[in-house]
Amino acid sequence: MKIFVARLPGTPVFDPAGDQIGRVRDVVVGLRIGRPPNVHGFVVEVQPRRPVFLPITRVRRIEAGAVVFTGRLNMRRFEQRATETLVVGEMLDLTVHLGEQPMTVYDVAMEEIKPFAWEITKVAVYRGRRREPRTVDWGEVSGFDKLQQDQGAAGLITAFESLRAADMASALHDLPTKRRVEIARALNDTRLADVLEELPPDDQIAILGTLEPERAADVLEEMGPDDAADLLHDLPEEQAAQLLALMEPGEAAPVRRLLTYPETSAGGLMTSEPVILPPNATVAEALAHIRQNDLTPAVAAQVYVTRPPTETPTGTYLGVSHFQRLLREPPSTLLGGVLDPSIGPIKPELTLSEVTYYLANYNLVAAPVVDELGRLVGAVTVDDVLDHMLPEDWREGRRP
């Protein structure tokens, strides 16, 4: 049975009891002179975003949509050895030679040659812009042992395209710096922005520093204003000012406002783009807004009602309507008549601990932030709070 490796990332991994314990991130192999690489095992991502190693000798079945193993899984964080190669992370997009012809690798196939022993037996390659695909034996190609300065990233991005941004960020974090830069440069602005939001600050800064300033500014424009502000807070002052100046004025304005608040105050934590509607909007309109795919669950959990304008800073803040209440009301009901009078707004200067107490005390997933003029300037969500309460290295999957 042959299995093409580029199809494996994201595949659920199940233990002997049938419980899912994680997802495949990559395949670990050992290169050998004159022989096909032998498969050592899988890199599996378990919660909380920790890559661990699953030896191939523990794998009992690999089938459509599932990898099943036996025995116990060592939960120690995976560390790649100098003699090991990651198939998805390091082999895909390599330029190899089929005879005298340069070819690009877009997949490889692993095959069980005897019980619990697997080798990389086939290489899927293409040539030139026409991408004429071919699948050949491992021994027919050469060049896997050579480090390339400009490897490209199309194959790896294709392998990871079905992953959520957080999962792709985890995979990106553990790749060699060279591959991380190649992939970041190859991603479109929107996808790169989504992935950057899920990376630790050090990775964000390093990746942003490899981009041309104009491209970096474009990526910042695609990020949520609160995430962009957090990243700019961590950059040197001159670099942050340069990127803000390169951003479109309309995109930079909310980020500039967020940067005026202390980073761990309600104003520094908040998103400036919650769902905001006027009081004469209907419940049907509100439900249509919170159905948008790009909203996080916390942001979509409530609609804020203000006088025009309805972009922050808004007109006078009137109140909030929770999505559960919206679901119980006739679609034609006006929002001004379904406000929750029990929830008051908070001030931008509230500290992180005060915001945390407020959300916990009222069992909320978000809270409106209103300035001294009575205008809604944003909303603090529970995920904003958690980002700042967890240890700095939580995105790296390390337990406190």
UniProtKB/TrEMBL annotation:
Domain (CBS) ranges: 339-396
Species this chain originates from: Nonomuraea insulae
CDD domains, per database record: CBS_pair_Mg_transporter (cd04606)
Keywords of this entry: CBS domain
Pfam families: CBS (PF00571), MgtE_N (PF03448), SH3_actinomycetes (PF26205)
SMART domains per record: MgtE_N
Classification of source organism: Bacteria, Bacillati, Actinomycetota, Actinomycetes, Streptosporangiales
InterPro entries for this protein: CBS_dom (IPR000644), CBS_dom_sf (IPR046342), Mg_transptr_MgtE_intracell_dom (IPR006668), MgtE_N_sf (IPR038076), MgtE_transporter (IPR006669), PRC_barrel-like_sf (IPR011033), SH3_actinomycetes (IPR058838)
Designated name of the protein: Magnesium transporter MgtE N-terminal domain-containing protein
Keyword flag Cell membrane: no
